[in-house]
Amino acid sequence: MRALLIGLALAAPTFAQFELQVVDAAGVRTAPPTYNLGPGYASETLTARFRLRNITGANAVVTTLAVAGVGFALEGSAAPVTVGPQVSLEFTVNFRAADLGGYSAVLRAGSVTILLTASVQPRLSYRVEGAPLGTSVDFGSAQRSTAVRRALTVINETQQLLTVPAISIVGADFVFAGRPPSGTVLGPNQSAAFAIDFIPEEAGPRQAVLTLGDRSTLLIGTALAPPLPRPLLSVDLKQAASAQQGALVVSFDKPAATAGQGVATLDFRGSADPTVAFAAGGRTLPFPVAVGDTRVSLPFQTGTTAGTLVFTVQLGEATNVVTVQVPPALPCLTQVEGTRTASEIDVRITGWDNTHSVSQLAFTFYDVAGIVIQPGIIRVDATTEFARYYAVSDLGGAFILHAVFPVTGDAAQISSFDVSLSDLAGTAKSARTLVR
User: What helix, strand, coil percent values describe the chain, rounded to 5?
Assistant: First the structure.
């Protein structure tokens, strides 16, 4: 009897190599047999995020990665692709359809197959200033306490009767301009309008949330502080001359609605004279502006040099300029003194010359009877000395003159004197001064 040998060919067992996971707001979990992307609206995109994980200890090849169904599309890596051990391959499935109804698709990822579902529901359309409503409505910039308005429209583009859902705003600075059309029933192609005003009370970026039934849109805008007023300049000066004190008056075209700071500058066009300056010091002067202010006054001094004072004020974005012309003048003698010793007369003169051009000096001495003492007028050409002095002086046109006159005879007989100084503008003569 012959033995019968029967060979049994057994198929090698198959083991799952991959785990399909869903990644959503709830976290990461194993994908269920049927996964619903949720309800959506016509031409709106719904998205599901997946993670295909290699659960083995060796490389695995994903030979299949596809979704089959109207409106569904896969976005991510294309098969075949090799995935390392314990490594995940991420991809998304998008759904978008224009027609109402329910939809389904088969998702095949590696060794896993699940069913995807989604639905398109009837929905109202919203527009802002004629454009489709997006994820935000930008109101741009608005000055504090002023309004910027955006017009919105609710449109029923379906063939069914639809009710406008509850419309509300959460957040400050954005308000409805009138009552929104919540609860209004719209037939096919009917619409309802409403508006929102952005009225900020504080400067800076502002935002709120507009809720339209089951959808939300961010309202954004930037609040600006009111601009500073425009400066209107005038000069309060008794006389446009050297050695004067005055004030630059900065008036505002309207009371300041916001606090800020302006800057005044003084430019002197003439020979160097550091004494032409604001009373506070220097030629640049910041000044504060408080809410409600209508003007500020900035004292200054004209110095002792002929030229043009140019005042410029920058306040916010506005600038204004005013000038003062200081004309050439005769020398000014502010103090004249004379003292005697047994053998000489000492004369000291303090003054200023705004032309920086003193040339001729003339001294006349008198006796106790008021008679001119010989040799009469004593003339001195001081052109070179004054030119040398003004070339290095940092006192503008100011000077101190010291002259000594030797006396032959009795110095006590010299009772008084006067002096004349000449510059480009003419000659100035002092009053008769007693010698002490």
Answer: 5, 55, 40
Query: Hey, what are 190's tokens?
Result: 């009917």
Q: In the chain, count of helices (H) and strands (E)? A: 1, 38
CB contact set of 310 (below 8 Å; sequence gap of 6+): 266, 267, 268, 269, 321, 323
Domains of the chain: 18-121 (2.60.40.10), 125-224 (2.60.40.10), 231-326 (2.60.40.2410), 332-434 (2.60.40.4070)
| 192 contacts 184 by C-beta, under 8 angstroms | yes
**pTM value > 0.70:** no
Helix, strand, or coil (residue 244):
coil
Which of helix, strand or coil describes residue 46? strand
The model's pLDDT over 401-423, given as tens digits with 9 standing for 90+, comes to: 999 999 999 999 999 999 999 99
Which residues share a beta bridge with 141?
222
DSSP category for residue 309: E
How many residues in total does the chain contain?
Answer: 436
